[in-house]
């Protein structure tokens, strides 16, 4: 009788991703990406924006906006606050002081 590898207690490592990008490590690479730069500039001007507002400003997809926001949050450049208004989810984005400083530095280098 044959037994599957997983049920036998063995794990099969996943192959490395092909064509995957190396992790971004430098701040200028994070801000230098067009959609993320649009997000940061818009937040610098408005103070805070919700998901729909940033979606309209950037013109990207919902999934794309979420991924860009996560990258900016990981670097500490924005905060993401998820709440409910009634039963509707509301996501609000704000630029952090570190984000303001990084954006000013990036603009000053250009």
Secondary-structure element series = HHEHHEEH
- Average pLDDT confidence is 85
CATH superfamily: Winged helix-like DNA-binding domain superfamily/Winged helix DNA-binding domain
Radius of gyration: 19 Å
Shape: globular
Number of domains: 1
Described by strand count, sense and barrel closure, the largest sheet is: 3 strands, antiparallel
Strand order of the largest sheet: 1-3-2
Which blocks of ≥5 consecutive residues have pLDDT under 50? none
Helices, by number, come to: 5
Count of distinct strands: 3
What does this 3D model show about the protein?
A 3-stranded antiparallel beta sheet has the order 1-3-2. Helix content is 48%, strand content 17%. The protein is built from 5 helices and 3 strands. With 110 residues, the chain is α+β, with helices and mostly antiparallel strands. The mean pLDDT is 85.
Features:
110 residues; alpha+beta; Arc Repressor Mutant, subunit A; three-stranded antiparallel β-sheet; 5 helices; globular
């Amino acid at each position: 009788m044959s037994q599957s590898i997983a049920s036998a207690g063995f794990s099969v490592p996943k192959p490395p991703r092909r064509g995957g990008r190396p992790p971004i490590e430098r701040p200028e690479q994070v801000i230098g990406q067009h959609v993320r730069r649009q997000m940061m500039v818009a937040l610098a001007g408005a103070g805070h924006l919700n998901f729909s507002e940033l979606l309209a400003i950037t013109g990207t997809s919902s999934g794309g906006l979420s991924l860009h926001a996560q990258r900016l949050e990981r670097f500490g450049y924005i905060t993401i606050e998820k709440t409910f208004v009634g039963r509707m989810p509301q996501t609000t984005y704000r630029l952090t002081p570190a984000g303001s400083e990084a954006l000013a530095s990036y603009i000053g280098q250009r």
